[in-house]
Design brief:
With 627 residues, the protein is of the alpha/beta class. It is 14% helix and 30% strand. It contains eight helices and 33 strands. It is globular, with a radius of gyration of 27 Å. The two termini are 23 Å apart. Bound molecules: the ligand [NH3+][C@H]1C[C@H](O)[C@@H](O)[C@@H]1CO. The ligand [NH3+][C@H]1C[C@H](O)[C@@H](O)[C@@H]1CO binds next to loops.
């Protein structure tokens, strides 16, 4: 095929085009990006006196454990504590251990910060010490430190220690332990514990921050926006279980946590301000959602009752961008260390409200007519099906989600070409090729569901993304979803980046997202259009600062494709760079084959007219100087 490139740009590439969709699904947050290493660290949202309440904790050397609704809770937000009884006549170190989120990585030389609150149930003359340690599941100590204590401490007391292992554990099967030396004096003692925490070093050393390896993998995509806090995980199964911004900011002692929408309790240690600081650290804009009056269990708040939820949304937005002298939520932000507003241009009203389109008409109307006048510079994004139902006020932007087969994405790269250019803009907020079975997209691996992205799915997505660049005059942002998943406990596949307690596994689709994001250019150059329902797709952008032409090519079938490019420019460099991601159709990066398909760079011959052969199942990014 011969592709003639126009030297005149048709539209700028919006700076917000490529970014990330985040929600706490498959332990993307708790046990993933959020660096806290202990699972069930504060016994939040559990039922006292049940074994489930002890999830991730175990007894050491005979200690009797139970989660109790404390008569003297450590805080009003954390009513539960762990009661540890040292049995009479016990010997050796007796106490409690935590297994982390399906493992704890222990690296020599890293400094771990451990903390917890304790109080003795009743005063005694006991004198002894806590031994705080990291040890292998077999019980071998990796590092430990002691803290002297006395039985006089019947009011909550916080312990904070650092642990610096001199040896790395050979696996992630390790535990965090707190034990008492149990000479005869300890026998019979009852100690209450609350809000444990164990942090490794964090990304940019942010307190309460992000896990370095996952954060670095995300940062390397060069993302320009971060959608938060969800997806389904915004919504709650019931109105009371919805995500509430004010329950996720401030000291951890004040964060009650919530029942997440993906089958596990969210600590909300990764809260609104932590998200906003993360955006600041990566130079990303937040695309922030507000709860829109619909819970996933099926409840829509009646129009007459929306007031308090609209007020809560107003406070949430003011927390982000309000004037700390005029708004209490903004003053709270300042008191927590960020007097200046955070940047915010987009607020999404709900998530996938096509599930409750009949009530979205009044919910959208009432939220937006109340909020838009207060925040004239915010662009509100509608989440029901585009133009269906008709909404008032007319949405300026819509969030479009597409989960389908690799071939659907290749065949629909012209999805936006036919959209009217009337000022409305579009957020391709969630998209991914997730199944090879067009009649059972959301099925199981047995019926075609992908467990990890493949080269075929990544090339389908790349084909679609060339269309998003061609239509970036109306598509302002796009993000693959879901972003992250813990391979040991995940509720959705495939995902852009998989991880476990010890490693991160970037997928084929991750490399496609990274190739497009890092080579996004500044303006789109029209060229000969690909065949709409063909198998070979391309887009051309120019990076003005370097006078680089960047051609992205996706070949979505096994047969190599020969392309000839005509560049009517005065001068074109003789050589350029090709970054090529290619592999067998079903090739995936997995924990056992983590780097099976990775981009490889090569030098290619370029010029005013040059040819390039796109390998079968490949995504190529060609870049060279021309002007
Ligand atoms: N069902 C998908 C759509 C929803 O918004 C997300 O929470 C889910 C996984 O990305």
């Amino acid at each position: 095929v011969t592709v003639t490139v126009s030297p005149t740009a048709s539209h700028p590439v919006p700076t917000t085009l490529w970014g990330q969709m985040f929600e706490d699904i498959s332990h993307s947050g708790d046990g993933g990006l959020y660096a806290e290493l202990l699972q069930n660290r504060a016994f939040q949202q559990v039922t006292p006196n049940t074994t489930a309440a002890l999830n991730a904790w175990h007894s050491i050397n005979g200690a009797a454990l139970s989660v109790v609704a404390d008569i003297l809770p450590v805080s009003s937000a954390l009513p539960n504590s762990l009661q540890v009884t040292i049995p009479a006549g016990s010997t050796g170190l007796v106490g409690v251990g935590n297994e982390g989120y399906f493992g704890i990585k222990v690296t020599a030389g890293s400094t771990y910060t451990a903390s917890f609150h304790y109080r003795f149930a009743k005063a005694s003359s006991f004198k002894g010490s806590f031994k705080v340690a990291l040890q292998t599941a077999a019980g071998r100590s990796l590092v430990s430190t002691s803290v002297s204590i006395t039985g006089e401490t019947t009011k909550w007391q916080e312990v904070k220690v650092t642990l610096r292992p001199t040896i790395s554990a050979s696996s992630t099967a390790n535990n965090f332990t707190v034990t008492l030396d149990s000479g005869s004096a300890a026998s019979g003692q009852i100690v209450h514990f609350a809000l444990f925490s164990l942090f490794p070093p964090t990304f940019k050393n942010r307190p309460n921050g992000m896990r370095v390896d996952i954060a670095t993998t995300l940062a390397e995509m060069g993302p320009s926006f971060f959608r938060l806090p969800g997806g389904n995980n915004l919504e709650g199964q019931t109105v009371d279980q919805r995500w509430q911004w004010n329950a996720t900011v401030g000291p951890l002692l004040n964060r009650p946590g919530r029942i997440g929408d993906w089958g596990y309790i969210n600590t909300d240690g990764l809260g609104l301000m932590d998200y906003l600081n993360w955006c600041e650290d990566l130079g990303m804009q937040a695309i922030m959602a507000i709860w829109s009056g619909f819970a996933l269990g099926g409840t829509s708040v009646a129009e007459a009752d929306l007031g308090p939820y609209i007020q809560q949304a107003m406070d949430q937005i003011n927390f982000v961008i309000g004037d700390s002298k005029k708004s209490a939520p903004a003053a709270l932000r300042a008191s927590l260390g960020h007097p200046d507003p955070y940047p915010l241009a987009y607020v999404e009203v709900g998530n996938e409200d096509f599930f409750a389109a009949s009530t979205y008409t009044y919910r959208w109307h009432d939220f937006v007519t109340a909020l838009q006048p207060k925040f004239p510079n915010i662009r509100f994004i509608a989440t029901s099906d585009t133009f269906n139902p008709i909404l008032s006020p007319n949405p300026q932007s819509w969030d479009q989600h597409n989960y389908n087969t690799p071939s659907w994405f290749a065949e629909n790269s012209f999805f936006y070409d036919g959209f009217e250019r009337n000022g409305t803009t579009y957020f391709e907020g969630e998209y991914a090729a997730i199944s090879t079975n067009s009649s059972d997209i959301f099925g199981t691996p047995a019926t075609g569901r992908l467990t990890f992205p493949t080269m075929q799915s990544a090339s389908g997505e790349a084909a679609y993304m060339t269309g998003l660049e061609r239509n970036a005059d109306i598509v302002f942002s796009a993000s693959y979803a879901p972003l992250l998943n813990h391979v040991t406990n995940s509720q959705w596949t495939p995902n852009l980046i998989s991880f476990d307690a010890g490693n991160v596994y970037p997928s084929t689709s991750y490399y496609v997202q990274k190739l497009f994001s890092l080579n996004r250019g500044d303006e789109y150059l029209p060229s000969t259009l690909p065949v709409q329902n063909g198998t070979l797709f391309w887009s051309v952008v120019r990076k003005i600062s370097t006078q680089q032409i960047i051609i992205k090519i996706s070949n979505t079938v096994e047969t190599a494709a020969d392309l000839t490019f005509e560049l009517p420019f005065r001068s074109v460099a003789k050589t350029g760079t090709a970054q090529i991601l290619t592999g067998a159709a079903n090739a995936s990066n997995t924990p056992t084959t983590p780097n099976l398909v990775v981009p490889r760079n090569s030098t290619i011959a370029t010029g005013k007219r040059f040819s390039y052969i796109a390998p079968g199942f490949s995504v190529s990014v060609l870049s060279f100087i021309a002007h």
